[in-house]
Amino acid sequence: MNMRIVIYITTGIILQALFIKTEHEEKYVAAVILKGLASLCFVLIGYYAFTHVNNALTPKIFYGLAFGMLGDILLNLRFVFREAGQKIFLIGILAFLIGHILYLVALIGAAQHVWIWYCIIIGGFIAAALLAYIFRTMEVKKAFKIFGVFYLGAVIIMTCIAIGIAVFMPSRASLMFAVGAVLFTLSDIVLIFNTFSGTTRFSLRITNLSLYYLGQVLIACSLLF
Fold this sequence. Notes:
Blueprint: H1 3-24, H2 28-52, H3 58-80, H4 85-111, H5 115-137, H6 142-168, H7 172-196, H8 202-222
Helix pairs in contact: 1-2, 1-8, 2-3, 2-8, 3-4, 4-6, 5-6, 6-7, 7-8
């Protein structure tokens, strides 16, 4: 692997670990800066692929990574500007949703096979079941419910398509993207339960942030192959 990419990955993991520690210490301004810098590292991996690898998927996924970075910053800004916290959180979720739609469009364009519709249907059923469970067992405000339907739907359908591509069109890139997508989805599920279940645990916060970051790094690195 290119040494520049190794540096980006290593630096990003260190920054993400420092971010988790700083956020836990409630130093929220410093945490936002560290989070933004950590996210910048996976965006730089995507940018390297964007400028060095001839791949039709690269532009959409690169911009998806960039929206992921924006979402990261916004989600943590809600702790800095608490009075507008809910609005900032929802805008952050919107940024992630745009990123996932870009991933989704890229994957659908790459597959173009009949089986992709089975992946979409399966993803829709999984998302509907998970949302039904969340809405039945947790207190979620209406605005979060509306965003949650679109966001989780896009995330889970995108992940199912990524798995389908890895199975039916196997390659190092498709497998790496699929694993990254699964980690991203798991991180979101952990985040939802840790945010809306009524009890917030630092161990689950670590799990959520670690899975998320590894997922984004793997998605970015998949563009290199």
